[in-house]
Amino acid sequence: MSAQPEYAPVPPPAPAPAAAAQLLARIRTDRRAEQWGPAFERDWAKALEDSRHSYSLAPLHDVVRTWQARLAAAPAVDAFVASGMDDSDGIALEDVLGARP
Length: 101
Prior knowledge:
Elements: H1 19-29, H2 33-54, H3 58-83, H4 93-97
């Protein structure tokens, strides 16, 4: 009897080769570009270094996916903040997306 599951979890599809460049272009046009541009570049540099040591593209893919989620969620966050609703019971983004790579 095997303790292995009967199915293997399907990994998310790899981002497009130009996804990081497209994300950086979107970040630079955003009103948060002053803070988000350096943060993305820092995350990308760390993932690139991790990727060089591990011979895996997974750290780079994780950065792209995380930033895609942040950019996708930004309009909803802006709308919530503009609504003036109480956000004192909020959840940290890291709790939702996981720790930063």
